[in-house]
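Supplementary Note 2. Why include the ligand at all?

Several targets in our set were suspected to adopt different conformations when bound, so apo predictions alone were not considered sufficient. For every target with a known small-molecule partner we therefore ran a joint prediction. The input for zinc ion is given below.
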Amino acid sequence: MATRSGASRTRTTPPVLLSVETPADSRGGALVMLVIVCPNCGPRNDNEFNFRGEVIPRPSVDTDPATWRRYLYMRGNTSGWQRERWFHVSGCRRFLNIERNNVTNEIRMVAEVGGDTT
Ligand SMILES: [Zn+2]
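The joint prediction is reproduced in token form.
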């Protein structure tokens, strides 16, 4: 395993269901709590993390302006599995790539950025 100042880590978490639904809130909506297993800190409540959005492959520097515009401003907004970037703000303060089903909140992969080739 690499050190904190060295190359990226390659640890990932096992694919497990990590979301927990709780009873309805006072307005009748369901409250959902995610438990994210950080590769550095272990299982943590999602309120320790910041959602940073969908992970989109970065185009090369010499690509055309239309491609850059799509990269900067357009999102897929798909239903189902997507790769997302989260920041563990109350823990190790590292960026994580998470594969999450945004319909069921099931999480099947958590890896530190750079540890899973992205
Ligand atoms: Zn962490």
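The mean pLDDT is 82. Residues 38, 40-41, 88, 91-92, 94 surround zinc ion (CB under 6 Å). Comparable summaries for the other entries are listed in the accompanying table.
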